[in-house]
């Protein structure tokens, strides 16, 4: 008797309200999702190891997110040449700050329910 492998497509819907320039399907995100699925598949054989691997994965993700957010904040901080930014640049920056705050508060709300 031969084993048959089936592959199912997983539809990933981007969260609402992602700031401009943020992709819901980046290679890093896909890698994190693949890693957590791989961890989950080993749970029956090694529950403790899987829980530890999942914790390390979350630590890696939080570290990467922190670096990304710090970079994004620096980018929003103002003009590179030291001159005061134009009003339109400031308006766009404030809008991007708001978008980022919306995404982060949504993520924070999610973390309270789990």
How would you describe this structure in keywords?
114 residues; 3 helices; 0% strand
Radius of gyration: 19 Å
- Structural class comes to mainly alpha
**In what range is the share of β-strand residues?**
under 5%
Overall body shape: elongated
Describe this structure in words.
With 114 residues, this protein is mostly helical. It has one domain. Helix content is 62%, strand content 0%. The chain is built from three helices and no strands. It starts with 26 loop residues before the first helix and ends with a helix. 0% of the residues are buried.
Walk me through the topology:
Elements: H1 27-41, H2 47-76, H3 87-112
Please summarize what this structure is.
With 114 residues, the protein is mostly helical. Helices cover 62% and strands 0% of the residues.
């Amino acid at each position: 008797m031969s084993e048959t492998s089936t592959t199912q497509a997983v539809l990933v819907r981007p969260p609402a309200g992602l700031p401009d320039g943020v992709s819901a399907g980046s290679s890093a995100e896909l890698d994190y999702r693949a890693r957590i699925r791989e961890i989950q598949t080993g749970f029956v054989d090694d529950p403790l190891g899987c829980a530890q691997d999942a914790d390390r994965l979350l630590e890696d993700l939080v570290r990467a997110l922190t670096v990304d957010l710090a970079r994004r904040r620096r980018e929003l901080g103002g003009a590179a040449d030291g001159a005061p930014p134009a009003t339109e640049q400031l308006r766009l920056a404030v809008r991007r700050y708001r978008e980022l705050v919306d995404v982060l508060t949504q993520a924070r709300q999610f973390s309270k329910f789990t």
